[in-house]
């Protein structure tokens, strides 16, 4: 049995199809819908590059070996923070919209 297609969130961040779903499912659906991954990726690239230059700039300039673990994590953190911001905004907007 396949899951029903969720409705797209409206401009104010709510979606009737998401309202009746479990809390965790709504978080996941908000995190992967309406351009959130694309925007989070763009933010992660820009912020990640800047942070990597700050954190590992001396290593790059000296020609030393890059710490790839730090390099990857420096991109993951801004992606997760940006996604969290979008999801929390939509969850709050959904709560405000559903109140009588």
What does this molecule look like?
- The two termini are 34 Å apart.
- 72% of the residues lie in helices and 0% in strands.
- The protein has helices at residues 16-19, 23-32, 36-62, 68-98.
- It has one domain.
- It is elongated, with a radius of gyration of 18 Å.
- It is built from four helices and no strands.
- Residues 1-14 have low confidence and may be disordered.
Terminal residue distance: 34 Å
Proportion of strand residues? under 5%
The low-pLDDT segments are 1-14
Largest sheet features: none
Helices, by number, come to 4
Report the strand count.
0
Helix content: over 70%
- Computed CA radius of gyration, to the nearest angstrom: 18 Å
Shape: elongated
């Amino acid at each position: 049995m396949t899951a029903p297609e969720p409705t797209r969130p409206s401009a104010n961040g709510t979606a009737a199809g998401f309202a009746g779903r479990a809390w965790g499912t709504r978080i996941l659906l908000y995190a992967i819908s309406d351009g959130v991954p694309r925007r989070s990726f763009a933010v992660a690239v820009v912020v990640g590059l800047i942070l990597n230059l700050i954190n590992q700039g001396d290593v790059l300039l000296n020609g030393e070996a890059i710490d790839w673990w730090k390099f990857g994590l420096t991109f993951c953190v801004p992606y997760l923070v940006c996604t969290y911001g979008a999801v929390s905004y939509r969850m709050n907007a959904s709560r405000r919209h559903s109140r009588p």
